[in-house]
Amino acid sequence: MKTTENKNMYSKARLLALVGFIGLSATSFAQRPEVTSAAIAVDRGDLAAAQQHIDEAKAIVDEKGPSAVSESTLQKYYYRRSEIYYKMYAASKDITSLNEAIENATALLAYNKAVDDDDYTDDIMELLPTMFSDMSQTAAVYSQDEATRADAYNIYNDLYNFKKTDGVGQIDTTSLYYMTLLASQMKDTARTIEHYKQLLEMGYKGRQWTAMYEGQRTPIESKEMLDIYLEREIVSDPELSPSINEELWIQAIYWMNISGRKAEFNEYLAKAMELYPDNSDLVIFQLQDYLDSEDYDGALANLETLRQADPGNALYLYNMGFIHHVYKEDRDKGLEFYDLAIQADSTHKDALYQAGLVYVEYSNVKADAMNDVPSNKQREYDALKKEKEDLLKKALEYFLLAEAQDPEDKTTLQSLAKVYYQLGNAEKALEYNEKSQ
């Protein structure tokens, strides 16, 4: 009796196991004919039928899960789905079909890596570079139109992520760089800064091989391909473009600055200055940081560094004058640098105006002194008045030169009206007052 009971239990266990095996096999068999039918259809050029069969296979895979499909069938499914959808893309140029093709191609490579097998790997690797190229070219076209720049960004992002998958294992810095440019064009500050930081962490230099092909300098996708082309004498005169790493630092710092991310701005500026201490753009960023923190001596030292590299730069000279004049309240030193800026560039409107303003301030000092002269010292009063008028006439010269550079500048016109009024020329004062309205 005990033996019979054990025998029944054993039979039941075998029966349950057999049922489970049959259920799994049914799933595999239900999936395999669809993949085979899809393969037959695509081989005979019937894309509509191929799509129908491979989509039905997808429904089974999605419902049961890839683990319910045999290894060989799943490999064939990924390959055929990629192949079919790429052919659909070729016929329609529908980017969603291209995405589906690449998604399944990379899924096959990742799966083969996981199971340590290479079925269909060679086949898909023949297709994948062309798929990637098509995707990149589509994104490049979309990026030219403001209305489709967001689509271009998304395509580059998909391409970047596809290449990063386990099966491919590439870090597509070129696509990331284009994503950065598009994000900045779309004024997406957060993404722009994020991508610049990624590129800098990768040490991206953006160097591109080019060579002469049919009379034109043409970009070459890689050094490996360049060597092949050179060996076959398809191209000639190869060149490697200069690094853009320095410019990436400048752009990253610029975006951090305008977005108010002060801690990151200071951190990245310090790193960039270590790498590129002579870069004038970085020195100017540092100058702004000195001014923001009211370190005027540091700002002047910074400008002196710039000036040594470019002694005749009117902008540097003007800014040194402005710091001395406005922030350090040293009119004499300010005027000295304003005049140096004007000598370097006689059309520098701001230097002309500020120099005129210094003379107005000098005249105000004389006016204050006049108010302190006792009434019985007319000669002293008249001398101060003459000095005041001479200073105002000097201011007038500078303001008129500034007006010649920008006749519509209201600040200059208002200053001219005031100076003419103080010089007793009511007619001119009224004229410039009306111009300034």
TrEMBL record:
Q: Keyword set for this entry?
A: Repeat, Signal, TPR repeat
Query: InterPro entries in the record, alphabetically?
Result: TPR-like_helical_dom_sf, Ycf3/AcsC/BcsC/TPR_MFPF
- Claim: Hydrolase is one of the keywords in the record: no
Query: Its domain of life?
Result: Bacteria
Origin species, per record, is Phaeocystidibacter luteus
Its signal peptide is 1-30
Name the chain's protein: Tetratricopeptide repeat protein
